[in-house]
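Below is a typical protein record.
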Amino acid sequence: MDKTEFWKFKLMAFLHDPPCKALDFTKVHEEIAMGFVKAALPGDDTSAYYGWLKGLNDSDWFAAEADRISGFGKGQKITPFGNGSKFKHPLGSAEYVFSSVPTLDLAAEVLQNVQKGIQVDPAASPEEQVRQHFFIHWRRWMEESVRSSGGHELAFFPADTRIPDHTIWNHMGVASALQGCRDENKNICGSFLLFQIGPVQEFIAQARSTRDLWCGSYLLSWLTGTAIKAITDELGPDHLIFPALRAQGVFDALHQELYSKIKYGGDSLWQRLYKDGSFDDRIDSARKLLSPTLPNRFFALVPQGREEEFAKKARQAIDLELHRISEVCWTRFCELAKVENQTNLENMKQRWDRQIDLFAQTAWAAKPLEKISEWQKTFGEVSELLAARRNTRDFDQFVTDEHQRMARKDVLSGKEEVIGNEDVWKNLQTTPEFEDEGPYGALSIIKRLWCRVETKGGLLNQLHIEEKVFKNALRMDSLPGIAAKNEAKGTEEHPNNPYVAVIAFDGDQIGKRLSGELMPSVKQQVADGLVGCVKDEARKLTPSYHTQFSEALANFATHLARRVTEQYDGLLVYAGGDDVLCIVPADKALDCAADLRALFRGDAAALSREQNKYNLGITQSGFVLADENYPLIVPGPATDASCGIVIGHCKHPLQALVREAQNAEKRAKKYAKKEDGEYQCGAFALSLMKRSGEIIEWGARWNENALAVYRDFTQKTDDETFSGRFPYALAELLKPYRLKEKTSVDLKPIIKKEFEHVLSQQAQVKGSTIEGALDYLCTLPNDRLDDFTNLFLASTFINRQRGED
């Protein structure tokens, strides 16, 4: 099959069911689908489609069969679909109830009107025109239809009203991906490809400034996107099962040339996606492009026999792009360093190139999908293969050049040798890019130069954004600038609290959910009237579950994480699926972390007081209305998340704060488990790093009411209901009991008595109490009793007017 036919049949597979199929399961929906195909391939002979639809479309059958429940489907009648019908969250514990379902005619009209606005490049080749049609239908057909009048509910129309836990849109994508995996005999033969790039945490953490921190994160997302593009350019974006690519700013940025050639409604698709409107609109659009939201791992469905080919293409794309960025930054580095000695320049370039060569560490694994019913089994096997490959470390010596011995190391990484000698860095440290900083190795220099507007061929030129817009979109507060936004103001001598918080947020048990270990019961997933027709057993892992879950993770990262961080005057460093790293003022950290968790879960109760703050509609848990009432699925209430929070002085080394936040996150994961190791509930762990060197650790599970106690005590301290000496008096009284140490003695009655005594002594208003404090004490295990005292110490330190020790 030539490439034109390849893209035609993929487009036909994508359009084989109309998105409004749930409203009609008669032959009418086939006629509607045929109309969509004719509109997508104007003037083309679509007779092949009719034959394919009438019996040759095994990609549709395979996709539908993979998503069905064993022994269920053929004997049960199609359930009626209309107002009151439910879409079941794929992870369970949540439902989206339809309240304004359009008629079939209106839904079809909305979809047709969107199609009419599509215009591909008339000068492109036939192959490229069909490819462009596929990309715009995949990228924008759903979004434009859902945003149209009468199309709001189309976002969650199910593929099968009997098992409404996956949308028709995901079914369409899975069918077209299977269609793209046909062999020479036209049989569907797919393979799973898992690919990962590193290093991640250590590379991101090696930063002196907030911009360095962001740039390291964005560079990794950019390289991951480049690797993904090497596969999707040839096969299509539907072949990426994880992460979901629709609305990913980095992925869109890498396709700017393509999207600029496709038109919709008179504008190019690029203009449609990233508004060419007011200055503020352009800045907001630029920030979406500049959000590092692609994780460092991806999962693709590729044709059997071509697994290694695509893995190599992904790796080669990373190497080519990294070296292209490297050359751009090298040129700028030489301009700033004012190097005149040619021999010295050549020696530096040799070391520079070698450090670039040694940077990216990739690993991949592949496994043929022998049967579509074995999706879960195959994914488990390929995951184990990748884990085994990653554990088989490459121990090549880190050799850069013959001058390496005794050379000075990069002050941030401590690994790479510095680029340039003392004279070079004397010149560099007088420039705005490296003012009083360095010396650095190649990767730290790239972090500093790639995103600068003065670097010709740098990120600004790759994104084709106006310089003024780019500068405003990348305007980042320094750590002192973030600290200045603490709400507690002080005296003239100490004008503000100089502490900041780094938050490392991570979903709990996401790997187990992606692998199918934590699937909901099938009774939760079928239509309400069919619960009695199925066994009480776990739902199997399916293609549409994977794509639906990926979409939920991507929605949180791309649409919500930045909104929360900026609401608390913070900086979003990274948001990839369930993983978030951000910096906020110290006294806003706990509220920010709690809101991230609430939006991750789509927790309507927790966010009921916040809806005006975020301009969101959250009336059904697990789902969020955002961006012009655009409905989004999020990971939902069946999931949870833990986070580590470190609070330190704004002059503390940034990379040390990031590492401590990551360590605190690991501690939170331990809090989230019972003594037997079984997962219980998400948690947070807080580390207060005072300038004196003292560290206070406090943490709690989200359901332990600790945050409510913290807020109540903070409020009553602010309004002087309690003396500022309260926590110190309590800590002094409890110090002899050595609460950090394990003991068989029940100390809780003693702590209760001492607490009540301090209340009576430190309350400015007689009879005042701290709501829920003793209930919180009862929830604490015996080896964490010091958390009770540390809660009050943490509140006083974080929220007092002056942050000095």
Remarks:
- The longest strand covers residues 190-198.
- The chain has 32 helices and 17 strands.
- The radius of gyration is 28 Å.
- Residues 307-337 form the longest helix (31 residues).
